[in-house]
Amino acid sequence: MDTRPLLIVDGANVVGSRPDGWWRDRAGAAARLRDALLPLADQGVPPELPPPVEVVLVVEGAARNVPAVPGVGVVAAPGSGDDTMVELVAAAPDRRRIVVTADRELRARVGALGAEVHGPRWLPRDG
Q1: Which of 5, 20, 1 is nearest to 126 (CA)?
Q2: I need a labelling partner for 38 at 20 to 30 A (CA). Which of 14, 32, 73, 93 fits?
Q3: Which residues of 60-92 are buried (b: 16+ CB within 10 A; e: fewer)?
């Protein structure tokens, strides 16, 4: 059994929270977010989330083909990204689960399953 905390990042929501031109290249923006998340596997998010951490980025739509890299898993949602994140939380009931999103409905759904929820600003500034 994996005892590392599971950090699930709502790719579309986090990318969309920063008006940096992401809409011109959604897949590129998701890849940049994935790369910015790399240090979190080994460093965590001090002081709330000590390392090591399993980091999972959930992508959908135009970003669906962004590949995983060592240190950051990427899950391409077959339909709703929100539903996929709820499934990931539900599948790991014995682990600490942290979901990063600003989506109110998703926050309520994963919170009801016992996940901790943080908004996009909780991530390190370049993440």
Answers
A1: 20
A2: 93
A3: beebbebeeeebbbbbbbeeebbebbbebbeeb
Contact 94, 2 (CB under 8 A): no
What is the helix (H) or strand (E) element at residue 112, kind and residue range? helix 104-112
Nearest to 34 by CA among 77, 85, 80, 74: 74
Q: What is the residue-level pLDDT of the chain in tens, covering all 127 positions?
A: 788 999 999 998 988 667 665 556 788 899 999 999 999 999 999 899 999 999 999 999 889 999 999 999 999 999 999 999 999 999 999 999 999 999 999 999 999 999 999 999 999 865 4
d(CA 65, CA 63): 6
What's this model's pTM, rounded to 2 decimal places?
A: 0.93
* Cβ 57 vs Cβ 9: under 8 Å: yes
Phi, psi dihedrals of residue 97, rounded to the nearest 5°: -120, 130
